[in-house]
Amino acid sequence: MQSLASMLDWIYSNKIVFSLLSIVLMLLSGFIASIICKYFLLSIVRQFILHRNTNSDDQKKDIRITERLSHIAPVITVYFMSLWIQGLPVGLVEAIHTICAVILIINITILINEMLDITKDAYAKKHGAKSGSIKGYIQIGKIIISSIAVILIIATLSNKSPIIIISSLGAIAAVLMLVFQHTLISLVANIQVSSSNVIRLGDWIEMPVVNISGEVTDIALHTITVRNWDNTISQVPTKNFITETYTNWQPMFESGGRRIKRSFFVDQSSIIFFNDDLLNSLKSCDGEIVNNIKNHIETKMALPQFKNITNLGLYRSFILDYLKNREDICKDMYIVVRQLSPTSEGLPIEIYCFSSNVFWNEYEETQSEIFEFMYATATFFKLGIYQKPSGTDIQKSSSIQANSSVDLN
């Protein structure tokens, strides 16, 4: 016992040995606190208080929070151990307190950032992508938290009040604004884009200026990521969605109708008043389509307002009825078959309606069926579809002229 007491007296009297042993004791206590926090305390809290599910996502979140808390616990333990152990040099105690404070600030900052990420994931899981992305706001929060942490660390290391550090930043505010000008612009742009809800995850956007057309996969503070339809990835600065022109096609999907607006040219010389000869030429033809055309013409010709009607007028009314009877055309939206201003290529006839098939394949199929039907039925109304002469047409014309010359000779 005397030897043990004399050894303790010698250790206590030797400041260097006493300080080293004290540091080892504090580090050992911090390690034990980390083990307790990581493997015992948090499992009890997670099981009996948080009642977390056991799926992989929740387990990953628990591990992330557990690691952060397990890093904070030893720092607090070392700090209070330095207060409990008497006889340590004042300079060593101040250095330990400063180091603990800096490490504590860093770990708390990382913990808060982890909680913000978990909040973002939980929001996206609960509300879905269509409710909008809060990733930009989360990044703004991280910047604010990190800035506060930097100020607190500087104040701790310099042993000054954080208010003094903040007040001194006013002198270099212009420099900071110059350095972080893109971040500030992106911050304003992200707030405007997110608050106005003009772009959401999963939206189909098109920006012709930079040749982008695809689905929004990520909305961050500085950039918005788009997966193009050719499976390439494009990142567009958020501020471009304020300064550049773009189209968001998503409201079209949500409305339930996708617009069909296309025209073709009719040979103006083929437009005539509809007469009995044209009707009689149809009577010699058979088929369901021809019967529908004959019934439509006879019905329209019986009306007083349809006297002296042209074959083009009957054709437009027939196509209009055809569109109204299609199940994939929205009846509560505009359905128009109209003429446009004549051109050197003929008289444009435009179809303006909305297809209930909003997805690309079905929409293109509907549009193709409509115009194929129009091209095929135009001949029954003695209307010519205009197209520019091709090499084959010129060759046929030359052959006819050559044959005519041979016959004359």
UniProtKB/TrEMBL annotation:
Protein's cellular compartments: Membrane
Transmembrane intervals: 16-42, 69-89, 95-116, 137-157, 163-180
GO BP annotations listed: cellular response to osmotic stress
Top-level lineage group: Bacteria
A GO MF term: mechanosensitive monoatomic ion channel activity
Record keywords: Membrane, Transmembrane, Transmembrane helix
GO cellular component, one term: plasma membrane
SUPFAM superfamilies: Sm-like ribonucleoproteins
Domain Mechanosensitive ion channel MscS: 186-250
Name of one Pfam family that matches: MS_channel_2nd
UniProt-listed PANTHER family: MINICONDUCTANCE MECHANOSENSITIVE CHANNEL YBDG (PTHR30414)
Protein name: Small-conductance mechanosensitive channel (MscS)
Source organism of the structure: Commensalibacter communis
